[in-house]
Amino acid sequence: MPKNPDAEKNNPCLKEQDLVHKCLNQNNYDNSQCELYFTNYKNCKDFWYRVQRDRRAQGKYPYLPEVADREHIKQEYMKTKVSG
């Protein structure tokens, strides 16, 4: 459980962020050992930024979807990437 109860609500990439920190801790803060985690975190941030931007343009609020809706949004995105 995160110290901040709203951490997951405010940061859809909390899991990826935690994995980056864990990798850095385990590898004596050698960034080169954690490049895959950094890339995954960046991809996550980019994805949710696009979602927020699109929702804002469509007039949907909140711009960042509720935690319960995020998995569905990711699944819908994956369908468009596979079929498109």
Structure description:
This protein has 84 residues and is an all-alpha fold. It has one domain (12-82). Helices cover 68% and strands 0% of the residues. It has helices at 7-10, 14-26, 35-57, 67-83. Helix 2 (14-26) packs antiparallel against helix 3. The longest helix has 23 residues, at 35-57. The protein is globular and about 45 Å long. The termini are far apart. The model has no long low-confidence stretch (mean pLDDT 92).
Structure at a glance:
The protein has helices at 7-10, 14-26, 35-57, 67-83.
Properties at a glance:
single chain, 84 residues, mainly alpha, 4 helices, globular, mitochondrion, Cys_alpha_HP_mot_SF, Coiled-coil-helix-coiled-coil-helix domain-containing protein 7, COX6B-like, COX23
The dominant shape is: globular
Largest sheet data: none
Percentage of residues in DSSP E strands: under 5%
Radius of gyration computed on alpha carbons = 15 Å
Helix residue percentage: 55-70%
Structural class: mainly alpha
The H/E string reads HHHH
Helical element count?
Answer: 4
* Low-confidence runs of at least 5 consecutive residues: none
* Number of β-strand runs: 0
Tally of structural domains? 1
Q: Could you report the average pLDDT, rounded to the nearest whole number?
A: 92
What oligomerization state is this entry in? Answer: single chain
Rounded to the nearest angstrom, the distance between the terminal CA atoms is 38 Å
Main location: mitochondrion
Family: Belongs to the CHCHD7 family.
Subcellular location: Mitochondrion intermembrane space
Protein name: Coiled-coil-helix-coiled-coil-helix domain-containing protein 7
